[in-house]
Amino acid sequence: MEILIFVGQFVIAAALLSLVVFVFVPLAVYFLARADIYFTTLPEGQIKFIVEGDTLKRILANIPGYYIKGEGMEAEIVKGKGTPNDVGIPGWLSRRLGLDKKRIYFVGIDYPRTRVYSYEFIWEKFIKEKVGYKIVPRDEQVNSLFWKYPYPVEAIDVELKGNFKINITIIVTLQVVFPYKPIFVFKGQWFSPVIAAIQGALVSYCGTVDFETLRSQDKEGNDADLVKKVTSINNSLRENYGVEISQVNFVELEPSASQADVTKALQAIEIARLNKEAKIKDAEGDQQAALLRRTGEAEGLKKLLEVADKYEGGVDLLKTDLATRNLGQESEISTLVINSGGQTGVTTLLPISTEPKKKKKGTEKEKEKKKDDVST
Questions:
Q1: b/e map of 193-214 (b: 16 or more CB within 10 Å)?
Q2: Does the global pTM surpass 0.85?
């Protein structure tokens, strides 16, 4: 009996211990991680920095297919699979806690000396509204860095080729390559100089094209000259700020002059384009009309020849009449109107005799031969 009691107590103790280890401990870690105490949560696509005092201790990154290569200033985000160093949370509990795309990492035992680094970040956020878009300036205390993030770049009163001014907004997706530089070299204030560099490249390109050329760039995707010009500064961005441009998208392109002047300018461009197309169509139409006219005249002449051939001397008289018409003279021969069958209005006055063509009489030898044939 005592053995059974002992076994029962052991099972209960083991169950409670399992409950503590597999449920209460993970839950405690989770709530501590949310507060960045001893542990921290790291959503997918973000980077965090662990410092000891004011010194960088290590960089954490949750980027599928990428890992941190090197340490400190030399740390680089590269493709590949690194060694996992996150805290393992049971799958069923991870799903219940909404950690499918998050990881929990151990920060350090001597909190708050060893902690997650936080900094002030000033940037601009692009917000889509029911009608149009707006750019909202943001200034927050943050404790992570997005690996990739789309930022708006706006250029006002940009002068195009031909002294035409426009406002243009593009979205550039910036990707972190060397995470140490933007946070510890620029103390988190890297956004403004990067955007200024991109604006410089954008304005430089716009000065070489007209409005129609710039507007057509939106349909060319990554092959557009504008995209190539903007991304051409990537080497400089990587070296100086630790980031690069991974994607460029058009958002808005509008004239910056008064509405009346803009309307006139755009109408002039459209009218010029339509006039050009109309001239091309008129030229094509004239060629087609000339071809039809020549075809009709040929068909009409063919029918006239067929009719003239039925009368004595008709073909010779037709030739004479046509020659007279070509010389711009009037024919004095009495005429008979013959319609050519409705072929594009081709009707002529045919100067021919009204007598049908007579059959040729046989020679004397032919007559004698016929008599001999009859007598036999």
A1: ebbebbbebbeebbeebebeeb
A2: no
